[in-house]
Amino acid sequence: MENGVLQPGNLAVIFISTRPETTENYLFFDEATLQSAHDIEGFLGWDSVRNEPHGIFISYWKDESAVDTWRNNALHLRAKALGKSDFYSFYRSVISRISHVSEFLKENTEEKKD
Question: pLDDT tier at 114 (50, 70, 90 boundaries)?
């Protein structure tokens, strides 16, 4: 995620999961839903960490309207249904309002954007 995008008042949707295996069907829905999120006005970006079989995915949103649009997105709804039936053995989704943002990027790193 790009530095400087998040502001106090934005929302973070935190998705914590246990996924016993990665299937081709999962990879398809993972990529398709992420692309779909990018198309929603108010989507700000995401961060993710994974230590198989556990993962944390955080998506960032401008406001509640953007989160509601994402929540009701047809592809996202289908992926959630498949998550319960096929992909995950556990997940928790938490929506949190951002009250403070602090960022650091060391100079001369590969992540630095010109």
Answer: very low
Tokens of 65: 């309207």
pTM: 0.86
pLDDT surpasses 50 at 28:
yes
We find that the CATH architecture of domain 11-97 is 2-Layer Sandwich (3.30)
Find out whether 23 and 87 touch, Cβ atoms under 8 Å: yes
| DSSP for residue 108 | T
Amino acid identity at 53: P
Confidence of residue 113 (pLDDT cuts 50, 70, 90): very low
Strands (E), 1-114: 11-18, 43-51, 54-61, 90-97
Question: Could you state, in order of their start, the residue ranges of all structural domains in the chain?
Answer: 11-97
* pLDDT tops 60 at residue 58: yes
Q: How many CB atoms lie within 10 A of CB 59?
A: 24
Nearest-angstrom CA–CA distance, 39 and 62 = 13
